[in-house]
Amino acid sequence: MRHVDLTSAELASSETARRINRDIILQIIRTRQPISRADLARLSGLQRSTVSQIIEQLLEEKWVREGALAHLPRGRRPTLVHLNDDLVVLAADIHPHQATVALVDLNGRLLSRSTLPIGKDPAKAVHGMTECMKRIRDAYPRKSVEGIGISLPGRVDPETQRLVFAPNLHWPDFDIKGAFEREMRLHTEMENAATACLLSELWFGRMDGIRDAVLITVSEGIGSGLMANGQIISGRNGMAGEFGHVTLDPSGPRCACKGTGCWEMFASCNAALRYYSELEPKSKRMTFHELLSLAEEGNTQAAAALAKQARFLGKGLRTVVAGLSPEVVLVAGDVTSAWGRFAPLIEAELKEVVLAGGPPRLLPTHEGDVARLRGAAALLLQRHSVQ
Ligand SMILES: [Zn+2]
Hints:
Low-confidence stretches: 6-12
Strand content: 15-25%
Number of helices: 13
Shape: globular
Radius of gyration: 22 Å
Largest sheet: 5 strands, mixed
Oligomer: single chain
Helix content: 40-55%
Structural class: alpha/beta
Distance between the termini: 8 Å
Bound molecules: zinc ion
């Protein structure tokens, strides 16, 4: 269990309850900071003494700091607490051909960020990323690094902490987590990019009161992170959410998973590039960013390729919505930077598929491509407090 579910708090052991209370307090501090202990007790419904105990522990672990005094009209002036900006996480977001490494603070701010190419040798790729991490860490000597969070284009087995399924990455079996921990001497957490982005929305975002949500990452492939009844779903071997590899059309193109006509073969960014090259066979190879710019410049073939991708995103969401009935569907990835183009087409498809009631709300993640890095950081923040 990673996400805080208040309904299970009553059943939890006292140790689990303590961790959940700590998480609740951290969340309130993050959204209301700077804040007094009295206000924390009022907003959380916890006893003043419990709040004070948790704050003492958080101060000791350097997660929070005491700062300004509150200005009350009369009486005592309580000391306010806020998150410690100097506590940071090193985040890595791995894609099939490149990785981005960043330093992220507890408020989700990216302090530094750099992208490097990676190949098919995982040992070399990890070495490149850790060299980059060391440079970033050296540039911020005053910051205290809590650990490393990694978002991956594949599934991680929660038991073994090994990558079990990553058809677009083409890496042989390799202990990624172990390699990072050996080179950096820091605790490392890794997770599928979509689940990481969903945790980021829970930690940094706008998920208050939402208990059923699906987050879809649209990039070289399609990933999904699932939350049902307030719990993150990982399934056996961490494999839940592989809607990207559900067949949409058996006569479609062959996929890296060895299936044919998978959803991601029709709705990923690579699919949009394929549509464009079918419409413009003489065009040179380009990136998805270049395709987006071309469409913005008024190129009708580029616009048509993106529209086809958008409609297929919506069609694939039928299975997701029928299976999980989420309140919201969040979308992460480069398509969010052209959201005005994508949203109406996806929404039109979603409206058609609703069996009863209204369609789920469709929302882009706040930060476009930054979502995955904040997701990688959230992985560590979330697990630190509820693991
Ligand atoms: Zn597939």
